Amino acid sequence: MGSLSGLQCEQLSFFFVFISLGLVAALFLLKPLNALLLGDCYAQTLGTSLVQIRVMIMLTSRVLTAASTVFTGLIVFVGMVIPHLSRMLFRSVDH
pLDDT for 36-45, tens place per residue? Predict the structure, then answer.
């Protein structure tokens, strides 16, 4: 299924670099993501550039998904399901 146990120290450092860059980028996207939840018109009224934000969201999610899948294997897909399950459990759409 996958784990981090087979990684060497050199590989682990690359893993942490890609994951930390992706997480920092995701933190900067929290407010635009919440604005997009309310609709495109509302997000534009708040000054959000829809094209730029959507490109950044796609790039950030690709980096995080690629890095975690490459280094850990299939176990990542379980981690991708957890946010969706927690949203359903806590009935919250806030990022």
Answer: 988 999 889 9
